[in-house]
Amino acid sequence: MSWVCALLPFAWAETGAAEVSVQDVSAVLSLKVPGNAAREYPLEFRKLQEGVYVGVPAERIPVMVGRQTVATETGLRVTVTLAAEENVYFNYGERVKTGFRHDDCLFYMPGFWYRRNLRSPEEAPSFYSSDSWIVREDRLSAPLTAAFDEKNGRSVSVVRIDSFESDALAARQEGEVILSGKTSIGYTGFLNEDGETSLAYGFPYREAPKSYVRKLTLAPAVEAYQLLRKGESVSLVWKLSERDAADFSECVRRTWEYSFDMFRPKPVDTAYTPEYVKKVLSGYFSGSYVSGTLNYYASPDMRVSACDSPEKAEVGFVGRTLLNAFNALEYAEQQNLPDMATQANSVFDSYLKNGFSQAGFFNEVVMCRSGVVEPVHSIRRQSEGAYAVLYYLDYEKRQGRRHPEWEKRVRAMLDMFLKLQGADGSFPRKFRDDFSVVDSTGGSTPSATLPLVMGYKYFKDKRYLKGAERTVDYLDREIISKADFFSSTLDANCEDKEASLYAATAVYYLALVSEGGKAARYVSLARDAAYFALSWYYVWDVPFAPGQMLGDIGLKTRGWGNVSVENNHIDVFVFDFADVLRWLAKSCGESRFADFAEVISTSMRQLLPREGFLCGVGKAGYYPEVVQHTHWDYGKGGKGYYNDIFAPGWTVASLWELFSPGRAERFLRK
């Protein structure tokens, strides 16, 4: 019994220990000898004392396994201790039965999996490929999996607890791989076991039935093995919890609150003030400006290493050239930078002259040397362009300058928006100049809400307000109430962060011009959408391996948002969202919103490229876009690096709005 007693010092001395049944828990310890296939050793847990068990395999192995369970107010804390009697390479895993029928369940792995991922294509992780998935923890904004039983309104979750200080490289990325050192990254997920849902979790990481290596590219499963030397031990800690939830939205809300309270993300300590960030970012305005038939700020398809200026001009999405022009103009006049102001004005002048289609929509994407124009419009880019121009017009009017031709153009566009709007209040994702619909998906609808509300305020035209209200009726009925946020980004067709973020922002804009019962309704809707948006943002710091640049320069991932199921990287897409969170904090009395807004605000300053600290980017002020924080890439770089091309126009625009708080409120409540 001496070897068993040796495990007990590793048990957690936490009060409230209680007898916990382990009949629904199964565990397997896999051991690998280099050059040989791993062997699995199922474990039977035998009770030693109250809440303390020993894992016994069918045959003698050189590893002692102890398991302690402690009941706490927030769930069942599970501590597993492995102690090696000789050098071993190990992978440990557990499965816990939930008692839920798999067909009754929706699943939540924050920032990666929502419901059954049925908005995603079969080339990405989804139920189309399998109804059982386990993934490495750094894919997730919290290392957590929850299963929600729709039929009975119950949710069970498992979350990993660790200091998450290290990661290790592996020579291979599929099959059984031996790690080059110590990692903190395990795995989590859900399984269909004979029609019943089980939660699966373990350490080090595994991915099955497929790994996800780049956009729409599923790869073979992977199982990592870490060395545990003779005489060493490792303790692994998870917390299992169960909660009621009326629907999937409440499941996400309560689980996010639980995750936030578990990890308590703090603002990142940075010396960069918002004023300093803007000063550095303004270098992008000067460096990326291109003159020609269209004057614009270059963004799409730019090489990270060179930060050259390709010929592509893009109004919205990853270009955001008109919003950058407004930001540059406002900043230049504040700081007395006449050359920058001249350039910004020239962007608006050239778009007024040469930036519209025959019908009067923006030419969204233009190859300026060849003159080739993308013929298909998107409601998102059109809306982002109109949004920027309305801010510009309002600013100019306050300076005593009027632009009647621009006003005429924007009114005509908003009138066309009303014509384009569907009977259900939605907008098609993509369409042509003749109003024929290319993609009727309504996920991008909230992007149109913003300029409609702004147009109502600027032009005093209630038709635009009515159109905006109809968009939110659609959002309420088809997206928010169904907890089905999807396809707002234009380079993917799946569950994504921007759909919920845009929805929350759209409702916020309407709330700012509404009173009474309408305003109260909008607060409630914005709150529901905000929880889904928040669920994409990291509440923990992903570890990196030595040699992975992002880790070497000290990146903390808390406060950064994953992008979508298809595009599994983090970025700084926030725009108005911090203002939405602060507003909700006041409206709902929920301090977590304001607290996390501060985490976002501080964390997103970290990769500011400045002289002497370029963060892997070719020029100061060109803020990075594709920040690859997990084993995934667009085709270049991988974890700890960027893709080889990026679009810094939208990242600069997003951060500029983050550090221009209250902008929408000043516009809409003046």
Q: What is the secondary structure topology, with strand pairs?
A:
Layout: H1 2-5, E1 25-32, E2 39-49, E3 52-57, E4 63-72, E5 75-84, E6 88-101, E7 105-109, E8 113-115, E9 133-136, E10 144-149, E11 154-161, E12 175-178, E13 187-193, E14 196-203, E15 206-214, E16 217-228, E17 233-244, H2 248-263, H3 274-288, E18 289-290, E19 296-297, E20 302-303, E21 312-314, H4 321-335, H5 338-354, E22 365-367, E23 372-373, E24 377-378, H6 379-398, H7 404-420, E25 430-431, E26 437-439, H8 445-459, H9 462-480, H10 497-512, H11 516-535, H12 549-552, E27 561-562, E28 570-571, H13 577-588, H14 591-603, E29 645-646, H15 648-658, H16 663-668
Parallel strand pairs: 12-16
Antiparallel strand pairs: 1-2, 1-6, 2-3, 3-4, 4-5, 5-17, 6-14, 6-16, 7-8, 7-10, 9-13, 10-11, 11-17, 13-14, 15-16, 18-19, 20-29, 21-22, 22-23, 24-25, 25-26, 27-28
Structure report:
The protein is an alpha+beta fold. It has two domains: 24-263, Beta-galactosidase, Chain A, domain 5, CATH 2.70.98; 274-668, Glycosyltransferase. Helix content is 33%, strand content 24%. It contains 16 helices and 29 strands. The strands form six sheets. The chain has a 17-stranded mixed β-sheet that branches. Helix 6 (379-398) packs parallel to helix 8 and helix 7 (404-420) crosses helix 8. The N and C termini lie far apart (76 Å). The model is unreliable at 1-22 (pLDDT under 50).
